[in-house]
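Example 3.
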Amino acid sequence: MTRQNTDLTDDEIEELKVFEEQLQSFVGAEAGPFLSWDRVNRAMIRHWCEAMGDANPAYYDADVAVQLGAPAGAVVAPPTMMQAWTMTGFACQHPPGSDTRESMPVLPVFDQQGYLAVVATNCEQEYLQAICEGDDVNGRSTIESVSSRKTTGLGVGYFVTQLTEFRNQRDEVVGNMRFRILKYKPHSTAS
Amino acid sequence: MSQLNYAQVTVGDQLPPLAIDISAKLITATAIASRDYQDVHHDQDAARALGSPNIFMNILTTNGFVGRYVTDWTGALGVLKKVAIKLGAPNYPGDTMEMTGEVVAKNDQDQSIELKVIGKNAIGHHVVGDVVVALP
């Protein structure tokens, strides 16, 4: 599915080569920690469960949560919320104490070249221990790979795969995530 | 919420199907609940400018629905160990995602079961997921 480079002039091929070498230089780049704005709390859990229609009592009843390893009086968070705790939120900023660099440092390079659109395509999460009310989650990420140039249904772009390890306030690994996005130029604007 | 035990599960068991009605409200509310403020999940014009016909569900939410679908079935003491999803056809407002699931393996050592979960909408497969959940 890779776009045939024969569509391009020699200069464009050379430019693409330099760009792709630059992309590959980000493989292995580490970033973090990225902290959470809030400790794991019932209000955010309830908002999530309400929107998702998730009525699991482990997420609101401490008597159930204790059977899943939660401290007395605490509920457990939906494991699939793991990534939500360290999200930047409305202002697109990580809390103070976080790494100040872009969490996926290759993204600005794509933006400069006009690959402005982004869509997530894969998310693989492993949960190693319960994330409970009161926990303070942080994440550290590594760029695992950047694909060759692909032509997809959405447009022309590159898949970027990032690995993130999430830890709690005791520095115990609570889970990890392999996250893949497509950074692309939509077909309507692809050059 | 009833509780499923490991011994009750057989490879090939089907999960009861679940239909999720996809509305703009759902897409926006779940995006915000997951702290994902990317404009393609709440702003139709922004979504169109990036080549999408409408706003669409974010991946954290799909992940959440896959997890919820499995623990709805296991009961509260089912412990998710892994949720690995691949996204295909986007979930746009006005569509319905039909979720189905099947037990594909059992692991006696840790009393975990492996499931294949599919979420299908009018366009095709929105999500195909592999889930591991441990049972009492």
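The longest strand of chain A covers residues 173-186. Chain A has a mean pLDDT of 93.
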